[in-house]
TrEMBL record:
The chain crosses the membrane at residues 37-58, 102-128, 140-158, 164-183, 214-236, 272-292. It comes from Pontibacillus yanchengensis Y32. It is a multi-pass membrane protein. Residues 1-22 are annotated as: Disordered. The lineage of its organism: Bacteria, Bacillati, Bacillota, Bacilli, Bacillales. It comes from the Bacteria. Its main location: membrane. This is Peptide ABC transporter permease. Residues 98-292 form the ABC transmembrane type-1 domain. Coiled coil: none annotated. GO terms for cellular component: plasma membrane.
């Protein structure tokens, strides 16, 4: 009887043993992975990115060569998505265009987040004259008419910076203001907490306090903002390229491919030329937005309850 009693007590102890608590990031990752729409969108972006950046190994068609004999051909076994008015394969240009559009979106987002986070964190932490000077400069950038200055700077830098990087530099220079103000507001509220005041009192350097204590606590806001920026930069590139002020015409991008729809004949009678880039662009923007909403919901502390 004593042996049975001991066994029962052991089983009770094993069942009542407390489980190891999950970290907030693990809980956020788990909640994000349960969001089916966000996971489908993430899978779509991963597949799109792989296909775009492996384009030279997937297709061997020339993206710039004009083929007079293959102009405006409908989709067929040889040309899956048909050809454009210059005889270039639409499927090939769609893949290479994805490389350019995604490169612009990723590069601009990374540069904007770096500049905006740096200026916002310095202004929010130091305050006073430093905050006033940096925020006046930020207001100066935000007050620029975005489209006009992108076109002007693009024309000025065209001979200095080559190709796609002209647009990346211009969009990055004019796009960091909103991030800076957002990070500054978060830093201002965060630096009043006791652990920050304790770090200052024991003599921690400002750089260490910003990097080790403040930025990790505003990281969730920056991550959500990154998804918004990513979609915005892709749309900006496509819109500017459609108008003729973005990526050079000889470089394929989704915006340059959509520019062919400006011709009434193409718009009405040749949908295979402009529908694929338009559809891919819409799906990409929707996927990024769904991922952003999934991240926002997963990082919300109230959703853990």
């Amino acid at each position: 009887m004593e042996v049975v009693h001991n066994k029962n007590s052991q089983t009770e102890n094993s069942t009542t043993k407390p489980q190891k608590s999950m970290s907030p990031w693990a809980m956020a990752r788990r909640k994000f992975m349960k969001n089916k729409l966000a996971m489908i969108s993430l899978s779509y972006l991963i597949v799109l990115g792989i296909l775009s950046f492996l384009a030279p190994y997937i297709t061997t068609a020339d993206i710039s060569r004009v083929n007079i004999g293959d102009m405006s051909l409908a989709p067929s076994a040889e040309h899956w998505f048909g050809t454009d008015t210059s005889g270039r394969d639409v499927f090939t240009r769609l893949l290479y265009g994805g490389r350019v559009s995604l490169l612009v979106g990723i590069s601009c987002t990374a540069i904007i987040l770096f500049i905006g986070t740096l200026i916002g964190s310095v202004a929010g932490y130091f305050g006073g004259a430093v905050d006033s000077m940096l925020m006046r400069f930020t207001d100066f950038i935000l007050n620029f008419p975005f489209l006009v200055f992108v076109i002007v700077l693009n024309a000025i830098l065209f001979g200095i910076v080559s190709g796609v990087w002209v647009l990346i530099v211009v969009l990055s220079i004019l796009g960091w203001g909103g991030v800076a103000r957002l990070v500054r507001s978060k830093i201002l509220s965060e630096k009043e907490n006791e652990y920050i005041l304790a770090s200052i009192s024991i003599g921690c350097k400002p750089g260490k306090i910003i990097l080790k204590h403040l930025l990790p606590n505003v990281l969730t806001t920056v991550i959500v903002q990154a998804t918004i920026l990513f979609a915005t930069m892709i749309v900006a590139e496509s819109g500017l390229s459609y108008l003729g002020f973005g990526v050079p015409q000889e470089v394929p991008s989704w915006g340059n491919m959509l520019a062919a729809s400006q011709q009434p004949e193409v718009l009405q009678n040749m949908p295979w030329i402009w529908v694929p880039p338009a559809l891919v662009l819409i799906l990409t923007i929707l996927s990024i937005n769904f991922i952003g909403e999934g991240i926002k919901e997963a990082l919300n502390p109230k959703s853990y309850r």
